[in-house]
Structure formats: structure tokens, C-alpha cells
Specification:
heterodimer; A: 274 residues; mainly alpha; MetI-like fold; 2 domains; B: 314 residues; two-stranded antiparallel ribbon; 14 helices
């Protein structure tokens, strides 16, 4: 492609400016977080005496260790269970083509565009009746259920593309249905499973509405849910709020920088398939 | 635990398989057993999604405070939702957000992706992809808090305006009736632009160079090339971007809840926020459910034509 030098440089300047605009908000809350707690600093000024202690204070008052533990527990419950049951369902619908597979698929696809606020009220009432309200299970169970349309659809898309010869060969060798699933097809599904695991982890970590409605105690919420509670408490103390927000963001940002290629690919594939 | 149940249920046929039953028999047996594979997913999905879905529809026909007795009111809740300005207004607000969350990120994303594609496919492009994508991975709540500060009276946005001599225009962007909803929209642009850009860029790099060559031979300029070749061939990717971003706009909750809580007044209230307020502050489960049904219907009505358009062959 022939591109004039002028255009090349204009384009690059444009991109750098756009990147600047994108990261500026992060820089602004970083400098703000370093100002003395309780003051209202200006938007983008390096403080005379950076208050690194704000991060310690925010860590303590937000009970960060409890939040990290809670979020991790929720992710560790939601993601593996979702992966296992969605893979099993995707296998049955996409590969075994069990009778009623089309109906089942339609039933799951129905939930693909479901806005969470649409079902949050009955979920709340249901959980009160089941006695799991205000426990981590209150987030875990509905979240697994709400992930099922996407997760089943995703795994089915993988299984439907698997050539029948693989299964036929295994059957001739006398593999049971469970062997066929667990020993042959699950290992072959490693790539889509990894992407799905990344997606579900991010979505769980960032889930806010379920945490807000179904769990009152911030230390039993997801990271995003806890951040909401933190904002409610420290809305007036801007430096402390910024410090807390940065702390809560840090795990996500570190993971993103480490796995950015996988995360971007997974999110894009997720959108395209969904 | 699910695994254990499945294994124990499947061990007998595994041993029986050594008798080498006929293929059709096996296939039928497999298909019945296949249902057991779907069962766990189906069960949890039924209890926590399908049943709530039906309950939402059911509740939308009653007046109920969540505790006391229910009164059947027929379609009255829907009538109220459509008539009361504060309720139906949330739907209009959602559509205004669609402009910010969908139209702008997709249009701007096309431009940015085109720029990256033309001048920066090297390291700069890779860095740009990562940086622009950053807002997409952080919790929306964090985006709301960050921008709540940036757009406040003493925040960065006003400071920049003052610096370039636009001091008279400074205001509490999220607290002003005229600007609050659009200010929320800006947060959406920040969050969604990178996602759209990267997705459209992936599509662009799949376009055959030869198509541009032939367009150029026909004398197409930069713009007509973009309109005649790039956009039509990106139809599918544009459709995906529109679908994702429109759902994000119509079902918006996190950003609005944190940045404005629906205020000032009801200026930024979207259906998600109003459902939350109706159900959990005002204890009007019936009204909340009617609005929820309306929201779910709205999402489907808006998404279906986009899906159809983007999947059609050009």
C-alpha cells in the first residue's frame, strides 16, 4: 500500500493523542490518590508531598484482603462449574445431537441477549425463599445460570465443528460415552475452554448488579460489588476513593497486561460467536 | 461433585460395552444418556433464569410489595409504565445512550481502525490496540467512579476547558440536567471504543488487498474506497459491534448507578436503574416487572434487525 508521508505522520499523531486521552483518566485518579486524604485536589497535579500512605489506608478500610479472597472464591466456584456443565451440554447438543437438541439450543439462545436487570427481582425473591440471600452462593448460582446461554452456545460451536470420524473411531475401540467425552473430546477442546475460562473469570470479577442486590456484606461480594460499597462510604473523600479504586483495579490490570493477547482474542471471539 | 454423579451413572454401560452391542442400539442408548449431560446445565439455567423470566412476566400483572398479598391488576402496570413520564422516560434515555454507546464508538472505531490499518500495523498499532482496549477490561463500576471524578466541578475535564479558555462552559457535567445523560454517554464511548476498534480492525485485516487494487484502478479515492469496499465487507463485524454496544446501552446499569444514580432528578435514569429503584426502594414489584418485560422486549426488537442485516450476504 502506498501511503504518503504526511498521512503516515498525521495518522500516528492521531493515534498517540487518542491513546493519551484513553489513559488520561487513569493518570488523573493516580495523581489524585496521592493528595492528602480529605482534600479536593485539582484534576492533574503532582502533589507537593505524595501521600503513598493513602493506598495503605484504602487497603485497610476497604478490607482488601477479604475482598480479594471473596472475589477469588466466587470466581473459583463459578468458572470451573460453568465450564464443566456447559461443556457437557455443548457436547450433547453439538456432537451427540440428542433428540430435542434444537429445542434445547433455542432455549439457551433465548437467554443470550437477556439483560440482567430483567430477571434480578425474581432472583432476589427466589433466593430469599431458598435462604441463600446474603451468602456467596447467592451470587454464584445465578451467575452460573446467566452464563449458561453463552457458555453452552460457545462450546456447542466447538463440538459441532468436530469431525464425526474422531467419535466413530473411539466408539469402535469400545470407548464408553463418558470416555468419549472426558478422554477424547475434552482434551481436544482445550483452546475454546481456555478462552471461555478467561471470559467467565473477567465477567465474574466485574459483576456488579448481582452483588449489589443479592449480598449486603461487601466482604462476600465480587470485586466490582465491593467497589460499589466502598464508593458509597467514601464518596466525599476523593483521594481515598481514587486510591481504593486503583487498588481494586490493579489485579485486573495486571492480569490484562500479562494475558492481553488471550483476553483480547477471547473477548472478540466471544462477541462474534455470541 | 457433578462429575462424580456422572461417572458413577456411566460406569455400568462402560463395562457393558465390552459385549459390543449393535451400533444403532448404542447410538440410541447414547442419545438417552446424552440427556444426562445436558441436565446439570439445564437445571441451573431453568431455576435461575427460565423460572425468574416467567416470574417477571407473572409479577408484571399484579400489584405487590414483595411481602403482603398480591392483587391481580391485569395490564394496568404496563399502562402506568407507558403513561408516567418518569417511567417511559427511562426508555427514551436508553435510546439516547444508544447513540453514545453504539453509534459513536462504531463510527469512531471504523475511523481509528482504518488509521491503524493504514499507517500503524507495526509496534505502534499493537500498543494502540492494547491501550485502547484497557477500559474494556476494568469493572464498569470503576469506569463510573473514575469519570464521576473527572467530570465533577473540580475535575480534569473542567480544568482542561479552563486551560484552553473555555472557562465559562465549565460545570458539574453529571449534575446538570442538560448534560448529565450525554456525560454518561461519554463514559460509554471511553469504555467501548477500544472494543469496537479492535474488532473492526480484525475484520479489516481479512479484507483481500486485491479488492482495493481494483477499486483504485476504477479511480476510487480514499473515501469512496472506504464507503464502497471497507464498510460493506465489514458488515458482519459492524453488526457484532452494534449488537454488543446496543445491549450495553439498553441494559446499562453499573455506570449509571455509580456515576449519577439516575439523577439529577430522573435525567439519567435508564430502565435498569428504574427497575432497581422500583423494586428495592419503592417495593413496587409489579411495576418493576412490567418495566423489566418492556426492557427485555426492547432489546430483542432492537437486536433482531441488526442481526438480520449483518448476516445477509452483501
Amino acid at each position: 500500500m502506498q501511503i504518503a508521508r504526511g498521512e503516515r505522520w498525521a495518522g500516528r499523531v492521531f493515534l498517540v493523542a487518542l491513546m493519551g486521552l484513553t489513559v488520561l483518566p487513569f493518570i488523573s485518579i493516580f495523581t489524585t490518590a496521592l493528595h492528602p486524604s480529605g482534600t479536593v485536589p485539582r484534576g492533574l497535579v503532582w502533589p507537593a508531598e505524595p501521600q503513598w500512605g493513602n493506598f495503605v489506608t484504602a487497603y485497610r478500610v476497604a478490607e482488601m484482603h477479604a475482598l480479594l479472597l471473596s472475589s477469588t472464591l466466587i470466581v473459583l466456584a463459578v468458572v470451573p462449574v460453568s465450564l464443566v456443565i456447559a461443556t457437557m451440554a455443548g457436547f450433547a447438543i453439538g456432537l451427540l445431537r440428542i433428540p430435542g437438541a434444537r429445542v434445547l439450543l433455542a432455549l439457551f439462545v433465548l437467554g443470550l441477549t437477556l439483560p440482567f436487570p430483567g430477571v434480578i427481582v425474581p432472583i432476589y425473591i427466589l433466593e430469599r425463599a431458598l435462604g441463600i440471600y446474603n451468602t456467596r452462593l447467592a451470587i454464584v448460582l445465578p451467575l452460573i445460570a446467566l452464563f449458561m446461554p453463552f457458555a453452552v452456545f460457545w462450546m456447542r460451536a466447538h463440538f459441532i465443528s468436530m469431525p464425526a470420524e474422531i467419535s466413530d473411531a473411539a466408539r469402535v475401540d469400545g470407548a464408553s460415552l463418558w470416555d468419549l467425552f472426558w478422554r477424547i473430546h475434552v482434551p481436544l477442546a482445550r483452546a475454546p475452554l481456555a478462552s471461555l475460562a478467561i471470559l467467565l473469570s473477567i465477567w465474574t470479577w466485574n459483576q456488579f448488579l448481582l452483588a449489589l442486590v443479592l449480598v449486603e456484606d461487601p466482604t462476600r461480594r465480587t470485586m466490582a460489588g465491593a467497589l460499589g460499597a466502598f464508593q458509597g462510604q467514601y464518596a466525599t473523600d476523593v483521594p481515598l476513593l481514587c486510591a481504593g479504586t486503583l487498588l481494586i483495579l490493579t489485579p485486573t490490570l495486571i492480569l490484562f497486561v500479562l494475558f492481553q493477547r488471550q483476553i483480547i482474542t477471547a473477548l472478540l471471539q466471544g462477541a462474534v460467536k455470541g | 461433585m457433578v462429575t462424580d454423579v456422572m461417572t458413577s451413572e456411566h460406569s455400568p454401560p462402560a463395562r457393558g460395552a465390552t459385549r459390543r452391542p449393535t451400533r444403532t442400539y448404542r447410538v440410541r442408548r447414547e442419545q438417552v444418556a446424552g440427556w444426562l449431560f445436558v441436565l446439570p446445565a439445564l437445571l441451573i439455567y431453568a431455576v435461575f433464569v427460565l423460572v425468574p423470566l416467567l416470574l417477571t412476566v407473572g409479577y408484571s400483572f399484579v400489584r405487590w410489595n414483595g411481602i403482603g398479598p398480591m392483587t391481580w391488576v391485569g395490564l394496568k402496570n404496563y399502562q402506568t409504565v407507558l403513561e408516567v413520564p418518569d417511567l417511559i422516560g427511562t426508555v427514551f434515555n436508553a435510546f439516547w445512550l444508544v447513540v453514545w454507546f453504539s453509534a459513536i464508538p462504531v463510527a469512531l472505531g471504523l475511523i481509528v481502525a482504518q488509521v491503524i490499518h493504514r499507517v500503524a500495523m507495526g509496534p505502534l498499532g499493537a500498543v494502540a490496540r492494547t491501550v485502547l482496549f484497557l477500559p474494556q477490561v476494568i469493572p464498569l463500576v470503576a469506569a463510573g467512579i473514575i469519570w464521576g471524578w473527572l467530570l465533577s466541578l473540580t475535575g480534569l475535564v473542567n480544568e482542561l476547558l479552563r486551560a484552553i479558555g473555555l472557562g465559562p462552559f465549565t460545570r458539574a457535567w453529571l449534575g446538570d440536567f442538560d448534560t448529565a445523560l450525554s456525560a454518561v454517554g461519554i463514559i460509554g464511548v471511553w469504555v467501548l471504543l477500544g472494543f469496537c476498534t479492535v474488532l473492526l480492525l480484525t475484520g479489516m485485516s481479512k479484507i483481500d488487498e486485491a479488492l482495493y487494487e481494483s477499486a483504485r484502478i476504477d479511480g476510487a479515492g480514499w473515501l469512496s474506497e472506504f464507503v464502497a469496499v471497507t464498510v460493506p465487507l465489514l458488515r458482519y463485524e459492524i453488526g457484532v459491534c452494534l449488537t454488543v454496544t446496543m445491549i450495553a446501552a439498553l441494559a446499562a446499569f453499573d455506570i449509571v448507578y455509580v456515576a449519577t444514580g439516575g439523577g439529577p432528578g430522573n435525567a439519567t435514569a435508564v430502565p435498569g436503574i428504574q427497575i432497581y429503584v422500583l423494586a428495592f426502594s419503592q417495593r413496587q414489584i409489579g411495576l418493576a416487572s412490567a418495566l423489566a418485560v418492556l426492557l427485555m422486549a426492547l432489546v430483542i426488537v432492537v437486536i433482531l434487525p441488526v442481526q438480520r442485516l449483518s448476516r445477509e450476504n452483501p
